[in-house]
Amino acid sequence: MARTLVTGATGLLGSHLVRALADRGDELRLLIKRGSDTAALDGIDYEEVTGDVTDRRAVRRAVEGVERVFHVAAESSLDDRDRELVFAVNVGGTRLVADEALAAGVGRLVHTSSVAAIGPAAKGGRADETQPFMIAHLGIAYANSKHEAEAEVLRAAARGLDAVIVNPTFTLGPPIGATSSMSIEVVRRFLQRRIPAYVDGGLNVVDVRDVAAGELLADEKGRRGERYILGGRNFTLQRLFADLSRISGVPVPPLRLPPRIAVGAAELSDLLHLGVGIGVDEARSAALWWTYSSAKAKRELGFAPRPHEETLEATLTMTREQLGGRIGTSPGPAGALLEAVGRAGRVAGRFLPR
Which of 20, 68, 187, 242 is deepest in the core (most CB within 10 A)? Predict the structure, then answer.
């Protein structure tokens, strides 16, 4: 029985991953941040090490004597106020985990990155693992930090660490207990009608259960120093919201804004503290095409994502249960502001390049 360390075990992906590892028969050790809600781990037999990935002593204790490390812990906030935290956790934490895993003689590290580390595709296209990272100039902290974190893993691999990288796309699926994520929060906001507008962008949706299975496949079959995109169905935002609306009965957000107007509205909201609820990084990200091919993972790992309808239905069912009766009936104050912005955008958009 392999002794396996998992970081980020209390999150959406981590809680599914530890169950997959337990089913495989691994002896689990989990690095858990003090004060974390561990309800999603109920029923799992594990050894707990208290601490987080930015604490070298805690990481060193956690990696001692393990054969495998699944590094899942990350900070995914797109809030401009969290930029320092995002880099500290995603870059600094990954550096510590990789360095300490190498020093401890760990047999394999599976690093959970993100397609954000690869960057978006051209409009209407699909990116793969070979695409160079071309969006550093946009200053999106999450994307830049995940790209830099991969570099830390590859530096450790060059010094002898057996490491493989997985790049999940926009991860949905049934949360366990009260777990959430940046992607589940989008569905939550959709159900509460707190997304009064969207832009012309695209994204790839994958089921969290398939990502957990893909992590094990990468551990078992992945080539050292390689990255593997774990994705499912590519959507335009318009199509994704239409499918969510069809399944849930909640209306599609009423406005589609030109990207420049959406970013401008987010900047204005930040400046005037208007509380629209959309950050500048979020607006910039939404206007890009996060659409991908998972051909490499399917070919080399045997990765097999499920139909997207199953993922959307499971996500909506579980998120509704989490929300109880708190499903919104109107977009609220943010809607009034963005409706005004939208009217201006329809005029200004005639004169602005898209």
Answer: 187
